[in-house]
Write a structure and sequence with these properties.
Helices cover about 50% and strands about 5% of the residues. By secondary structure, it is mostly helical.
Length: about 270
């Protein structure tokens, strides 16, 4: 779940939440561990354990940031009111209290939530865009690999600057969090935070699926698979998500490699 190197406010908040509620909270750790180690019918126990843990962290990260954003939207509120409102939200709606988790952890969550909210939705400056891709460079979509152009005449091949950690969830508009992407992939990814909040259950194909079968998998589901691979690489090498994305490279959405030719192919058993 964690181990990659955070560079944005949203990533720091997510990392803190995972440390508190996945790594340290015994009840959730026990439930996920039981699922991961169980003889669950279907032989997907480890995959679904990671899936459930990811959904939990996505939901909590998003709720904290969106609540902080709503408070900030009321300009009349001061920082003291932001903090007291977030303290109340954590205790009354999330079960996260000072008594249970300690004041330092609560203060850290409040600070990170507010910082992530302030960092969300910022315009990308021209100097940052130039640092990501220039008209003198050959650019390729980091997700699907097609060539794109900074000064492209066609919209479908014009470069877009994709926030690896979504801008709406505290992804700063900085060089370290941006890569060039084609409009199709950027729009399909949208605000996908983790692979777990992608459409991972949108397809189940026959064993050893044909090329025609593969075409029925939508782009957003393939992007979720790509995102899963990036996170796993970043965690294993303790790098940033951007570094992992560059190292991993794009994926060929038209090709696939089923893990088990005798089992139906789903998100967990097909590789692009």
């Amino acid at each position: 779940m964690i181990g990659f190197r955070p560079v944005t406010r949203g990533e720091w908040l997510y990392t803190k939440l995972v440390e508190l509620f996945i790594d340290d909270q015994k009840a959730l750790q026990s439930a996920v561990g039981t699922l991961r180690g169980s003889a669950l019918i279907g032989n997907r126990a480890p995959e679904f354990a990671d899936y459930v843990a990811g959904l939990y962290c996505f939901n909590l990260t998003a709720r904290l940031i969106k609540t902080a954003q709503a408070l900030i939207a009321h300009d009349a509120y001061g920082e003291a009111l932001y903090r007291s409102s977030m303290l109340s939200f954590l205790a009354n709606h999330c079960g996260i209290s000072e008594f249970r988790f300690g004041r330092p952890n609560i203060n850290a969550l409040i600070n990170l939530s507010i910082e992530a909210a302030f960092s969300s939705g910022k315009t990308i400056s021209q100097s940052v865009k130039n640092g990501v891709a220039t008209s003198k460079q050959q650019c390729y979509c980091y997700i699907c690999g097609i060539q794109i152009f900074v000064s492209g005449e066609l919209e479908e091949t014009s470069v877009q600057y994709e926030h690896i950690w979504p801008s709406s969830f505290g992804g700063d508009s900085i060089i370290e969090n941006l890569l060039p992407a084609c409009p199709h992939c950027n729009n399909a990814k949208g605000s996908m935070l983790l692979w777990q909040d992608g459409p991972v259950h949108s397809f189940i194909l026959p064993p050893n699926p044909s090329a025609n079968d593969i075409t029925t998998i939508n782009r957003r589901a393939k992007i979720a698979w790509h995102r899963k691979a990036i996170f796993e690489l970043a965690i294993s090498r303790h790098t940033t998500l951007k570094e992992a994305a560059i190292t991993h490279g794009p994926v060929d959405f038209s090709a696939s490699a089923p893990v088990d030719l005798d089992d139906a192919s789903d998100f967990f058993t097909i590789h692009f």
